[in-house]
Amino acid sequence: MKSFSSTSFAGQHADAMALARAAVAKNPQALFTDFQWFLYEGRDTVFFTAFSTQTYDQDSLGNMVAEMVALAPQLTHGFNGAQPGEPFPKHILDAITSVEIVDEFDGYPDKWLSRSSDIFDRKDLPLFRVMAAVRRDGPDAQGRASVLQVRSSHALLEGSDSALLTRSASAGHGIQSDKSNKLPFGDRFKLAAKGWMTTFIYLVMANILAPREKPWGFRTLALERHRLRRLANKLGVRQRSLMFALVTHALNGEGAEKHLSKKVIGAAYTMLDTKRNSADDDFFRVRALEAKFKVMDDFVEYVRAVDNTVAGIEQKDITSFQVVINAMFKSMRTLNRLIPALPNKRFWRFNGGMDIVLTLVPPHRTYGPMTHGMIEPLYCGAWHTEVNICTFCPGRKYVTLNFSMEQRHIANVDKVEALLDEIERRHVTPHVMMPSVEELR
Description:
By secondary structure, the protein is an alpha/beta fold. The protein is 36% helix and 20% strand. It has 14 helices and 11 strands. The strands form 2 sheets. The chain has a 6-stranded mixed β-sheet with strand order 5-11-10-8-6-7. A 5-stranded mixed β-sheet has the order 2-3-4-1-9. The longest helix has 25 residues, at 185-209. It is globular and about 65 Å long. Mean pLDDT is 89; it is low at 1-12 and 435-441.
């Protein structure tokens, strides 16, 4: 059988475990791919949170975490004393879980959201935490007895893992690249060269242009899916284009004063793609793409322009940007081995001029023992140093928008739903949507 680990170990499972343990005994991050290493070094974190009809204590929460680790064995990697693939002993479960009693759920889940830097404080503990807040007097009027949150290093979990775990499904990664789809030598050489060039440029520019650390804020917003579906059909655009446009247009503001950009909003967005190649990362399934959205005051014109931009990107090669980024991660890790002081703190604060990252995670549908009792909306998001992020998490009835961004942008989150209300009321001339990349294929 294939190894559970995120790197390529051949042979039987027992041999793979022996190799894994020997590797992490020398270096706790030895099993990390270059992409994982980059996110670990950057202290990037992710979270999942939801209300539940269940009541939790320390033991029941520990049991849930044990089930989660069995489904996502990568959670046993990356810390001093790690035993890859092995269940955690009780003292570790107790150390990474916590339960508190609260009078009401006012302010949750937003009051819990943070950079989660505490995950990295103890080098001898796993790189994730699970917490629960239990209502003192039992379920409230909405049937909510508790609220749960999982916080993790982004090196261990991505949006597709969260979606799988909510379905009580295995989130083990195996090998995500396709070694049989090998890129030509010329392409590999060019990509490696671009990786080193990008690394050098980023290091130089970061030390010149990196901003000071800014006040940061977190917000969540839940929108009913049927509203988005109905409006997207009315406008003749893809639902993801509508969500991208709602967020970027609302955050940017109207009139002469723009908060993100006056002319073009630079955005990165993510998607899953099954067409893998040998240069892909062996752990992460996600594919990043780069987009430029021209600023327009009229929202209907803007959302249709965003939809055309997204369609144009996805009709082209959607692998090149991610492959170049992967090459940069590899060269940066190599450089770090030679010069441990690099990358420095200024590097992590430099976002390359990107205004916002838009992440659409796979649908989250609760099923099975892992999420028994959890109720929508479900919240899932991320924090990266000095990067404005909106993570879209679709469930059955709701899509949640999870914001991690400069504090000055947080007040504009309220404008998203106000903009949605306004466009729903407006009479819009029907528009024929461009075919999707799937339809063109």
